[in-house]
Amino acid sequence: MRTKSLIGAVVGFIFLNVSSLFATMNWVQATDSADWSKRRNLTAITFDGNLWVIGGGGSGATNYNDVWYSTDGAGWTSATDSADWTARRSHASVVFDEKIWVLGGAAGTTFYNDVWYSPDGATWACATDSADWPERSGHTSIVFNDTIWVIGGSGIGTGVIYRDAWYSLDGVTWTCATDSAEWSARSGHTSLVFNNKMWVIGGKGAGIGNNLNDVWYSTDGVTWTCATDSAEWTARSGHTSVVYGGAMWVIGGSGASGTVYNDAWYSTNGTTWFFATDPAEVLARAAHASDTLNGKIWTIGGRDESYALYNDVWYSGIIGTEEIADFGVRNAELKILKNKICLSVPNTIEAGIKLYDLCGRMKEVVYTGTLSKGNYTFTPSIKKTGIYFVRLSSGKFKTTQKLILMK
Question: What is the domain extent for residue 345?
Answer without folding.
Answer: 326-405
